[in-house]
Amino acid sequence: MSATIVVPLIPKSGFTVRRSGETWELVNSRHYGRGVVLHSWSREDHSEAFEHCYRLNGRNVEELFSAFR
């Protein structure tokens, strides 16, 4: 069993992205529970996963980019 890492770049109250082994998983544990994966991306597609998550949380993708500057 691989360890799951929750990445704290996304608001806790909505959708979150976590890394599980070689994939990134989109979850919303508040509404669906921790075990329900709504979408997954390969490890290389991490930027697409975070951008998608930010949009679902009603946030601007530029906020994500500014966090890394």
Task: Sum this structure up briefly.
With 69 residues, the chain is an alpha+beta fold.
Question: What do these coordinates show?
Answer:
The chain is an alpha+beta fold. It contains 3 helices and 4 strands, in the order E-E-E-H-E-H-H. It has helices at residues 29-32, 46-56, 61-67, and strands at 4-6, 16-20, 23-27, 39-42. Strands 1-2-3-4 form a 4-stranded antiparallel beta sheet, covered by helices on one side. It starts with a strand and ends with a helix. The model has no long low-confidence stretch (mean pLDDT 81).
* Spatial arrangement of strands, main beta sheet: 1-2-3-4
| Biggest sheet details | 4 strands, antiparallel
- Tell me, rounded to a whole number, the average pLDDT: 81
* SSE sequence, one letter per element: EEEHEHH
Q: In percent, how much strand structure appears in the residues?
A: 15-25%
- Low-pLDDT parts are none
Distance between the termini: 34 Å
Helicity level, as a percent range? 25-40%
| Broad structural category | alpha+beta
Q: So how many helices?
A: 3
| Overall number of strands | 4
Overall geometric form: globular
Radius of gyration: 11 Å
